[in-house]
Amino acid sequence: MNKLMAALLLLLAFSGWITSAIFIYQSKNNDNYVVKMLGENAFNIIEQSLSKSHSEAEVLTQIQQWKNDGWTAQTGSIATLCQYDRQRFKQWVAAKNLEQICE
């Protein structure tokens, strides 16, 4: 009986470790997905707002106007992209202007 009980307790311990490892793995996947989608939402807001701006100068002027006027949806999206995925701005501006946007 003692050997059976020890085997059951050992099996229970291993199943707990395996279950916790699966939960940790899934939690990390979920965190990565949330960060990715956070950047997607911010990108979509900026992309839609800049749809009428065609040149880099127009884009920079528009972004400065948002900052001056306090447009929180756009400036919040800019802050999010600057923090999580700064390279997405390269679609609209050159790399040298990223610092100006993210200041």
Secondary structure layout:
Layout lengths: L1 H48 L6 H14 L2 H13 L13 H4 L2
Helix pairs in contact: 1-3
Would you give an account of this structure?
By secondary structure, this protein is an all-alpha fold. The chain has helices at 2-49, 56-69, 72-84, 98-101. The relative contact order is 0.10. Helices cover 77% and strands 0% of the residues. It is rod-shaped, with a radius of gyration of 24 Å. It has one domain (2-101).
Q: Tally the beta strands.
A: 0
**So how many helices?**
4
Structural class: mainly alpha
User: How big is the Rg?
Assistant: 24 Å
**In this structure, how is the largest beta sheet organized?**
none
Q: Which range does the strand content fall in?
A: under 5%
Q: Helical content, roughly?
A: over 70%
Low-confidence stretches: none
SSE order: HHHH
Count of spatially separate domains: 1
In short:
This protein is mostly helical. The protein has one domain.
Features:
103 residues, mainly alpha, 4 helices, 77% helix, 0% strand
